[in-house]
Amino acid sequence: MVEFWATGFTQLFCGYRKLNREIYIMYLAGTPFNILAPSDIELIHASALRILEDMGMIVQNNRLLKTLADFGLEVDFSEERVRFPASLVERFISDAKKYDWANHKPWINSSAGVYHSRFHDPEKGQLVPWDESRLSFYFKLARRMPYIGKASMLGCRLEVRAELEPLYERLYCWKYGAQEGSSIYHDGICPYLLELYELRSSQTGKSLKEAFEGTVYLVPPLKLGRHEAYQVDWFRERGLRVGIGDMYAMGTSAPATLAGAVTLNLAERLALCMLNWAWFGDRTLHLGSSIAPTDMRTMMHTFGRPEMAIANALTAQLARHYGASSNGHAALTDAKLPSPEAGMQKAISGIVTLLTCGSLWVDAGLLANDEVCSPIQLILDNEMISAFKRFTQEMEVTEETIGLETILETGPGNQFMDKIHTARHFRMEFWQPSLWTRLMLGPWLEAGGKLDIELARERALEIMNETPDEPELSEEAEQAIMKLIRHAQDNIVV
Question: Domain 93-392 belongs to what architecture?
Fold first, then answer.
């Protein structure tokens, strides 16, 4: 019993940030959740080290491999494989920049992502292709949502030549006030992307390094494929850094077990951190998690299952063990339209990830594994994010917040509605919805009896019918970008 209470107190105390001798600031989000026993962590760590040392990682680019060999890693050029000696991995972990979890302040960020998706027309209720007016409206809607505020797009959802998508992605994002999703896709686009960012740098006054955004992804585990490796190396040779991301599907690209998937993810994340150390001198230790199960009946990669939340929680505990920062893919759904299924699936992984990682990034408006972008869901997600933020607010235990004198003054059998203490604190203590119902059944019926989905649809249509915002690119800037795209179209070799 003593051991139980000591452990529980330790976990709770770790959620405090001391301000002075009397007052502690408490956060519910980011408090340690010790799911794994110390022996579990030791086994996962030892297994990840063996994966890196015995199996290693495929990097299909000789120039990159040479830099890794020069760095001291074990490289087999015939296999295009790099292996990471356990001693060097341990050294990296020991010397890496540590994240200050003791002073972590929980946060939530969000944007409205547009991927290879259809547009959910709020007027007709149909899933339709994108056009420029729909794209402009969706970006505008994201900006109008106080807890979202921005949008992004990966590739280009309008009808353009596939190899030119990365260029058009930047054009439409910059034109309509969104963040580029940083696609590269094709080796032949690299020179034109560089030229485009040089142009963007001159237009915005930012340096080329500040303006540049590029990302590639690992698809099979521990393999930087030939094209992705080429793109990393091409920009690295020019002083620019391409990010490397990954996602795991349990049962296909990762083991079917949570323990196996989390261990493989740990190995790959450590490998990517060490590549960034070798190539860019970056000693940051970060453990992210994008792990979700495969539906073995349909082979669908699922986002709405509880395993995603559990994998994030396990990875967050490993991150604390290593002194690494952490985040997890979350608040996503397999549901095809706004529905209770969508809301529940988003909440399952969203709230668990926020509580265990102490942070949450929400890609708002997405349905159907990112295949549908819904203005209605975007507004519903804005409300959900607002509620999530309540878990990140500071809580104080002081004489003032307890209100002992008010409690004693009120006495047994009375109420607190007319007390100054209530008036002073309720706005800060109570989360206030803007969409979710605030009425009992009778008044709700008298007001029309509308559900949250109906209210969100009305709000979406209201903004859709407003005058479109002015483009954020000047006509001169857009013409310069289009001239570059036409040049690429005439000359690019895929």
Answer: Alpha-Beta Barrel (3.20)
